[in-house]
Amino acid sequence: LNVGVRHNVGRLHSMSIDGNLDMAADKLASKVKAATRQNGSLVNDLDNITTNRSELLNGDVRAVHIAKLNGDLTQVKTELFGRYHRNDTGLDWSNTTTIVNPATVSLEDQFQDNATDHWTVSVFPTIVQKVRPFWYLSAGVRIGSNNNALNRNQGKFRGLGTAVDSLSAYFETSEMFIKPSLSLRRSTAKSQVNLTLGSSWSRFDRALDKTSLLKSDYLYLIPGFNYSSNYRQGRRVGLNYSSSVNMPNVNQLLPFTNTN
Description:
By secondary structure, this protein is mainly β.
């Protein structure tokens, strides 16, 4: 589901709101039977039953307001953004092994349920000023937070609801960030060049069963450069360099045994 709204307030103000919503569900079951024979006689056989389940919910919304000031020489843009993502997955499997001689039957089974949540919110005000013909200076800062949570239950004997403590936990990561940037751009009908100097400060926290494990502060420089030129009709050349910082997700930082 996608929605979008556009509205202009006179010539100097414009607003837009865009939103997306996705939902999906899936279930897959399989059964495998294998047997080992020697000289035509059955030695052992294996019966495997596996079930995978998945439910997904994903939504985001973005609102943008643009104001033109100072005789169109100045543009102020404010962006609000929010996203929520949830993914519930489940895995059940069981193996039944039968050995003919000596006559034995063994049963092994396991389940794993994962509920993963991710939500992020941010505000991004920017100001663009025309300083000379074809030259523009812009400054902005993105402020927000990213939050991730994984609720895992794993163990044996689903019918009894028995989970293994060392394999099951509620783990969270949260990041607060401030990302200022300053850009100088020259734009003509035939070419564009843009030089950006940005930085990223973030405070990253990890928590296990609602108990904070470690808080860390990080500071990075994230420069960027872009150049493009239509040097001849139908011919274009460009050069681009960008940098960014992405924090690890909850599955990469699990402080307990991961048997995925």
